[in-house]
Specification:
The complex is a heterodimer of chains A (227) and B (264).
Chain A (H helix, E strand, L loop, with lengths): L5 H4 L4 H10 L3 H7 L10 E2 L11 H27 L4 H25 L8 E2 L8 H23 L5 H24 L15 H11 L2 E2 L5 E2 L8
Antiparallel strand pairs in A: 2-3
Helix pairs in contact in A: 2-4, 4-5, 4-6, 5-7, 6-7
Chain B lengths: L3 H33 L16 E2 L11 E5 L4 E4 L7 E5 L10 E11 L2 E8 L6 E6 L7 E3 L1 E6 L4 E6 L2 E7 L1 E3 L8 E10 L9 E8 L11 E5 L9 E4 L3 E2 L2 H10 L5 E4 L1
Parallel strand pairs in B: 9-18, 12-16, 15-17
Antiparallel strand pairs in B: 2-5, 2-8, 3-4, 5-6, 6-7, 9-10, 10-11, 13-14, 13-18, 14-15
The chains are: A mainly alpha (227), B alpha+beta (264).
Chain lengths: 227, 264
């Protein structure tokens, strides 16, 4: 089993369309390198999806992109919590942030309704089993998410999506500051945050190789069991 | 002088009453006016966008019955992290050509910069524990189900989060070819093959017949359907666990690869 590029994972083309929207680059160029990485939304959706205003194609693309990043983050925190291999202090904040990220997944899925995509498969390659690696990766993804949401906020069409992104953005920024503080990194070294470039998002996510193919555990070969 | 006192008192009372009225009026303006808004004075602002989100966290959910990981490359499971002694060879593929998997026991250790993970792998007569490099494994997948096979009662029970969700009568190994007992797991699922003998669906387990060398395919025990439903329940098989085709299709809807299997 090998790690996948976006082209291989995203059979429906949904993620690729998202990146096309966001990167304005050529699809072929992007397919060569892109893999999926991390963002966020805050809290769970209570209103049924059908009651939401209809999303534009661009907003769907943006929300799908966020959903994949939220899947990644929720899976990472959840796996660390299940394995219990990181230190108790790290586990404490990871539990809180993980519950937020799972809330984000539920919320974005609710916003997207039938347009929601399924979660990719992930391989965190030991990051969820190593305290230092886990903390550093969490900081990187929370920083990235907060920066990415700023970019998206000026791109969305609908006010209700903008409101959702804004409520996510502040929570992601708090995550980033909190984990940075715990890790001994200055939470706000500069007076202003810059929106992150799309290329940087793709590059960071690509570098993790966290998105993988689904293992082929089903087959059609005639069984050779004892009978 | 006597006439002037009531007049002065009356004036004082009137002044106090007027002051109290003014204070009351001022308080009313502050509180009532403040809460009702000054819509006539404000410019026409659009209402704030309705937030579709409510501040609600989502808990992790029940502890899974197991975590499994695919084997990325054929690797030896060692008796300890970086130990030279081999507990079991773990191929990347099963005999059925699917990706092989291991169960994650939970412990990890770093030795000389390399992360090692304790795993459960097929062994004889039972699964064995060993240590594999983390880099030889893919991502972890949680499973919520556990299958319990009772050879005496000839029943299989599937538990999800500890609660029974499926029960079925089964056929198990005949006295000469008994189904092995112990702790195992489901490592693949086969379907759409052409073999009425195995029914529409077959699950591969890590359990192995005691006479494994007699079987060209390795003597692995499967859980599958049958073209002889009249023999169920009973001790009828060469080691496999059989159930009616209706039941195996029902089981396939609920049981995922990686499910731990206890055979009693």
């Amino acid at each position: 089993m090998s790690d996948l590029t976006l082209e291989t994972v995203d059979r429906s083309g949904a993620i690729a369309e998202t990146f096309d929207e966001l990167t304005a680059g050529t699809r072929a160029d992007f397919f060569r390198k892109a893999v999926i990485g991390g963002t966020a939304l805050t809290a769970a959706l209570e209103t049924p999806a059908l009651a939401q205003p209809r999303n534009t194609a661009k907003d769907i693309a943006i929300l799908r992109f966020d959903l994949n990043l939220e899947y990644l983050q929720a899976a990472m925190y959840g796996e660390a919590e299940r394995l219990g291999q990181i230190g108790p202090r790290t586990l404490d904040w990871s539990r809180v942030v993980g519950a937020n990220e799972r809330g984000h997944v539920r919320a974005i899925r609710g916003l997207l309704g039938r347009d929601a995509v399924k979660s990719p498969s992930f391989n965190f390659r030991g990051v969820t089993e190593d305290d230092r690696l886990f903390t550093e990766t969490a900081v990187a993804f929370e920083d990235l998410t907060a920066a990415l949401l700023k970019t998206q906020a000026i791109q969305v069409d609908s006010r209700h999506v903008l409101a959702a992104l804004a409520s996510l953005h502040s929570v992601e920024a708090r995550h980033a500051a909190w984990i940075r503080h715990i890790a001994g990194i200055v939470p706000s070294a500069d007076a202003f945050d810059e929106p992150t470039s799309k290329a940087k998002v793709v590059r960071l996510v690509d570098s993790t190789n966290f998105v993988t193919s689904v293992p082929r555990t089903k087959g059609r070969r005639r069984p050779g069991y004892t009978g | 002088m006597r006439d002037a006192r009531p007049t002065r008192r009356t004036g004082l009372r009137a002044a106090l009453a007027l002051a109290a009225l003014m204070i009351a009026a001022a308080v009313a303006v502050v509180f009532v006016g403040g809460s009702s808004g000054s819509s006539s004075a404000d410019p026409a602002l659009p209402p704030p966008p309705r937030s579709a989100l409510a501040p609600k966290n989502v808990p992790l959910g029940p502890t899974p019955a197991a975590l499994w990981a695919p084997v990325l490359a054929t690797t030896a499971a060692r008796t300890g992290p970086a130990e030279p002694t081999v507990a079991a060879e773990v191929p990347a593929r099963t005999p059925e050509g699917t990706t092989n998997i291991v169960l994650i026991v939970g412990q990890t250790e770093r030795r000389a910069g390399k992360l090692w993970v304790e795993v459960r792998v097929p062994g004889t007569p039972d699964d064995v524990r060993g240590w594999m490099p983390r880099s030889a494994l893919g991502g972890y997948t949680p499973v919520r189900t556990r299958l319990v096979v009772n050879r005496e009662r000839l029943r299989a029970t599937l538990l999800r989060d500890g609660r029974p969700v499926f029960r079925a009568a089964i056929g198990v190994g005949a006295p000469a070819t008994p189904t092995p007992s112990g702790d195992f797991y489901i490592r693949n699922q086969l379907h759409k093959y052409r073999s009425p003998f195995y029914g529409p669906v077959a699950f591969g387990t890590t359990a192995r017949s005691a006479n494994a060398s007699d079987w060209p395919a390795g003597g692995w025990v499967g859980i599958h359907g049958t073209d002889l439903p009249e023999l169920i329940p009973g001790q009828v098989s060469a080691g496999c666990i059989r159930m009616t085709n209706r039941d195996i299709l029902r089981l396939a809807r609920s049981m995922r690869v990686g499910t731990p299997v206890t055979i009693r």
